């Protein structure tokens, strides 16, 4: 193993399984792992095969930006191996998919499609407030309207 101390290296330097300490300014370092400690997290990897950037917060947790994934721009968030993704698709547009639950929170959450756009709910029973679905509420309203119509018909007799 050769050791050298250099104040400045100019030109091309090829290294394999080497450690560089200090400052790297204005260079390209492909296939790099930048750990704060080699056995601890967080760790940052650049140009891992298939991943442009990986930031690990734990063994199976972190944020990943793939270099290519089914022709999509994608951000993958892993929590103990479970993936949630944010991606932009020519077919679906912007997609945010949670591995379990997806929570949108804030003072105001606004769904604002363009003038020709729509907010699409695939199934009214999927929309709920507490333990009652929107479909159940609509069914209850229909029952009340039907009951009022019967009462009105009885009064008109």
Automatic annotation (TrEMBL):
Residues 1-22 form the signal peptide. Keywords: Signal. The keyword Signal applies. This is Copper amine oxidase N-terminal domain-containing protein. The lineage of its organism: Bacteria, Bacillati, Bacillota, Bacilli, Bacillales.
